[in-house]
Design brief:
Distance between the termini: 35 Å
Radius of gyration: 22 Å
Helix content: 55-70%
Number of strands: 5
Strand order of the largest sheet: 3-4-5
Structural class: mainly alpha
Shape: elongated
């Protein structure tokens, strides 16, 4: 089934899925599938991807550090310990998490309520899992074609940050669909509309941060796909009113309305 972010992920991977639901599965955490039984989680894909990652990195290291001599024996410029350390530097948890950040994939993870509450989307372990799950999905989709896997793996490991593409370009591609879902934003329905867009997979879950000032409540609304955080400019007597105003301006920003 098509889902928000599918085209973006495939473009960044430079790989088109024949079975797109494998990609959807790769970004589905167990917490989400527990709440939505129609979705398969990505844990088995992580297992597959972990093994594929080892194979691809070893293949690359062998190509970079050695060759066959005239007796068809493999001769390496690095010893076992050096190769092991190099592999560790490529596939350690922090490096894989950084690659997912550079690719901009964490924003598309499907998380259950518990994961959302614990901000799992920004956890290093979750990003590492996502790297492996996506590679596992590619492996199944291409029937373990080693050339394809090596290319996609290297693409992911060498990815450079694309902050602009991760936010504004993605929002532009979905603006018409989101406008059709929401209509023209209204203060009284803004909070509900943001939640609807989250439930339908267009955006990550909105976060509201409240500040109780001497003049009243201020609220800042944060959505990962939005270019700015928005707050009510004037304190309000009620938290709910402050939240409505901040949500309204986030909606306006997401949907490309100037005023």
């Amino acid at each position: 089934m098509p889902f928000n972010g599918s085209d973006y992920i495939q473009n960044r991977l430079n790989y088109t899925f024949k079975k797109e639901n494998l990609l959807l599965q790769a970004i589905t955490r167990r917490s989400y599938s527990s709440e939505n039984p129609a979705y398969q989680n990505n844990q088995v894909l992580e297992f597959i991807g972990d093994s594929v990652l080892s194979l691809c990195t070893v293949k690359t290291l062998c190509q970079e550090s050695g060759n066959f001599n005239k007796y068809n024996q493999f001769v390496s410029t690095k010893d076992e310990g050096q190769l092991t350390e190099k592999r560790k530097s490529l596939v350690n948890k922090n490096n894989l998490a950084e690659c997912i950040d550079n690719l901009g994939f964490a924003q598309f993870l499907l998380l259950g309520k518990s994961d959302e509450n614990n901000d799992v989307r920004n956890k290093t372990g979750a990003k590492e899992d996502t790297f492996e799950a996506i590679l596992g999905a590619v492996a199944l989709d291409c029937n373990f074609d080693i050339a394809t896997l090596n290319r996609v793996c290297n693409t992911m490991l060498k990815a450079k940050p694309t902050q602009i593409q991760k936010t504004s370009n993605l929002i532009d591609n979905n603006t018409k669909e989101m406008r059709a879902e929401v209509g023209k934003p209204k203060y009284e329905t803004a909070v509900c509309k943001l939640n609807e867009l989250y439930q339908k997979g267009y955006i990550s879950k909105a976060k509201y941060i409240f500040e109780n000032t001497k003049s009243g409540w201020k609220c800042t609304c944060k959505v990962q796909e939005c270019n700015h955080n928005w707050s009510n400019s004037e304190p309000k007597n009620r938290k709910s009113e402050a939240r409505q105003i901040s949500a309204f301006w986030v909606l306006m920003d997401l949907l490309g309305y100037k005023d």
